[in-house]
From TrEMBL:
It comes from the Eukaryota. Its cofactor is FAD. Belongs to the flavin monoamine oxidase family. Keywords: FAD, Flavoprotein, Oxidoreductase, Signal. GO terms for biological process: polyamine catabolic process. The keyword Oxidoreductase applies. It holds the Pfam family Amino_oxidase. Pathway: Amine and polyamine degradation; spermine degradation. This is Amine oxidase domain-containing protein. InterPro entries: Amino_oxidase, FAD/NAD-bd_sf, Flavin_monoamine_oxidase. It comes from Papaver atlanticum.
Amino acid sequence: REPPPAVIVVGAGMSGISAAKTLSDAGIKNILILEATNRIGGRIKKTNFAGLSVELGANWVEGVKGDQVNPIWTMVNKIGLKTYYSDFDHLANHTYKQMYGYLEFGEPPRVTSLQNTEPLQTFTDFGEDYYFVADSRGYESVVHYVAKQFLTTDKDGDITDPRLVLNKAVTKIQYSKSGVMVKTEDGSVYKAEYVMVSASIGVLQTNLIDFVPDLPAWKLLAIYQFDMSIYTKIFLKFPYKFWPTGNGTEFFIHAHEKRGYYTIWQQLENEYPGANCLLVTVTDDESRRVEQQPDSETLAEIMDVLRNMFGKNIPDATDILVPKWWSDRFYKGTFSNWPIGVDQHEFDQIRAPVGRVYFTGEHTSEHYNGYVHGAYLAGIDSANILIKCAKKKMCNYNIKPKST
Ligand code: FAD
């Protein structure tokens, strides 16, 4: 009989896998990873779009060419994933204004929804450059890369380790001074000494996981104070190109009187040559609206915007892909955002363990929340907090007082 796992890790995205690897490296090998979906990778996910491999979630390695090397950049290069430098410098030069449209974005698309803390430590530490991943193996290969360093694989390189169990949605976590009990939607029950929860802050804000006893008020308050942003990357394919290509044309802006209405555009000629693809992004309220309407309606809106920019005679798109991260109960959005007024105090509360329940995920990254490298580094940090408790019985976690 197998001994019961010491640690159950909930979720096999970048942070859960990174936490599990850190535990394993520290000699805590009796772990069990329970993942709700049928795959590892979480918010790093490829899909097939009109014969191309595109990313539904994370797409860029953000923060390259600085004093420190972004650990994700190291992995991407070790694996040999195809990446393309994104040139945002000319963004403001390519603005198509509509009616009283005004320009409000002068920065790369993801920064606009992440810029609550200035300057962003990702760019001061790791550099200002962005690289777009376009590779048939998918950006998610970085998660597989970390996973295969501690989980067993078969001769084809597929993970066969029984410590990773897919299609196990955790619905209940019962915890006490002596251990934890974790229940999944299919009725399975697992016991362990500790649990490490990596589900997104969006998921923690729902009642998918029932904590027994309830999480304390300070923890709940911190969870509800954080924002889960929504960022939707809509891929489009056309019979031919009608937009400018060449140096400095990668990004363009459509300034509409309605804020955030199909504003940021990217032509993907470098990444997918000859495929005639465009990418347009919407965020937050627009994302929610778009997720709730049929894709055909979204496409009609988009074609109106494009005809406004390029004229009536352009052809209709032949394919559209609208990722739906907000409606997905295992994500409930795309990445965490620190709202105004939230500081180190709330961050500590978000990451702090509650008894034997530990927390990880990009939202628990002190300096890089919202990013793939944030998820990776947060997994290591959270695991180390648990290891300190399990091995040295140093289980106190100090929460910094609120700064005044
Ligand atoms: P997740 O990947 O969400 O992992 C959590 C895992 O837990 C998931 O696999 C989920 O299925 C599972 N889970 C949830 N609930 C349960 C449950 N009850 N039981 C069991 N399992 C559960 N970052 C960048 O650096 N560059 C980018 O360009 C970029 N763009 C992005 C674009 C989009 C559209 C999105 C969605 C994200 C983007 N990000 C980007 C952010 C980056 O993808 C995330 O920060 C990172 O992948 C989060 O990893 P994680 O492990 O914290 O969470």
